[in-house]
Write a structure and sequence with these properties.
alpha/beta, Nucleotidyltransferase, domain 5, six-stranded mixed beta sheet, five-stranded mixed beta sheet, about 30% helix, binds beta-D-glucopyranose
Length: about 240
């Protein structure tokens, strides 16, 4: 099946038609700068432009970088506060004229990784962490998503974990791989203490540098890099919308 997947991020809004059977793109990927400030109305207009670009007249899967419950965005760690309490699903459906499912960006990436990437055929408890501007998380139990886990905002050493283990924190504070790996280890160990996972999958842009930080990351659980790289969000959004078709 082909479905339009859209990934709303803090700096870019990206979309492509997803081949949900193969977990790949069935079109070119289009990227439009996220309007600043990234208020709901302005972002919805960009989503409508992307839908229009593909002449899309069917379901759309759309990610959002915050908690999304039943189509309503409930947090805004790295986006405009106006999103808190916004009925994003209705907003995007009105703008695009299409049925839309909205889900957390890390949950979408996790869906794609579990189906087509590093989590394929993995049972038990799997945690996918996306390390980018923020830290996103998704949790799967025997392949079934538990949405909106937000493990990126655990409090570690009195601080929001995202400020220690995001790729943005690594760059902003100029951490060495070793220093950052130590922080990431603490984050993973804390999650181990809470839920004893079977597998950690590390995604986000920094996952392509996995070999650099992996030697400095220590915990008892198996850790592997994500495989879908920057396709994960869009592909996962497309898969999530299959039920709307
Ligand atoms: C948000 C999450 C999101 C992550 C990655 C965090 O700040 O709270 O909902 O998944 O950033 O974008």
């Amino acid at each position: 099946m082909e479905i339009l997947g859209i990934d709303i991020g803090g700096s870019g809004i990206k979309g492509a038609i997803v081949d949900t059977k193969h977990g790949d793109f069935a079109s070119d990927r289009i990227r439009i700068e996220t309007p600043q400030p990234a208020k709901p109305q302005a972002v919805a207009e960009v989503v409508a432009r992307i839908s229009g670009h593909f002449g899309w007249k069917a379901a759309i899967g759309c990610t959002f970088p915050a908690v999304v419950q039943h189509g309503v965005t409930l947090s805004a760690a790295n986006v405009d506060d106006e999103w808190i309490g916004t009925d994003a699903k209705t907003l995007l459906e009105t703008h695009t004229g299409n049925p839309v499912i909205v889900l957390n960006d890390a949950d979408a990436a996790g869906i794609a990784e579990m189906k087509f990437g590093a989590g394929r055929n993995r049972r038990g408890l799997v945690v996918i962490l996306t390390l980018g501007t923020g830290v996103g998380s998704s949790l799967f139990i025997n392949g079934q998503l538990v949405p909106n886990t937000e493990f990126g905002h655990l409090i570690i050493r009195g601080k929001d974990a995202e400020w220690r283990t995001s790729d943005r924190a690594r760059q902003a504070k100029d951490y060495s791989w070793k220093a950052w790996g130590k922080r990431l280890s603490e984050h993973l160990q804390y999650m181990e203490a809470l839920i004893t996972p079977d597998l950690f999958i590390i995604g986000g842009g920094v996952s392509k540098k996995f070999e650099k930080f992996f030697p400095h990351v220590h915990c008892d659980t198996e850790i592997v890099p994500a495989q879908l790289r920057n396709r994960a969000g869009i592909v996962g959004a497309g898969i999530a919308a299959v039920d709307l078709m």
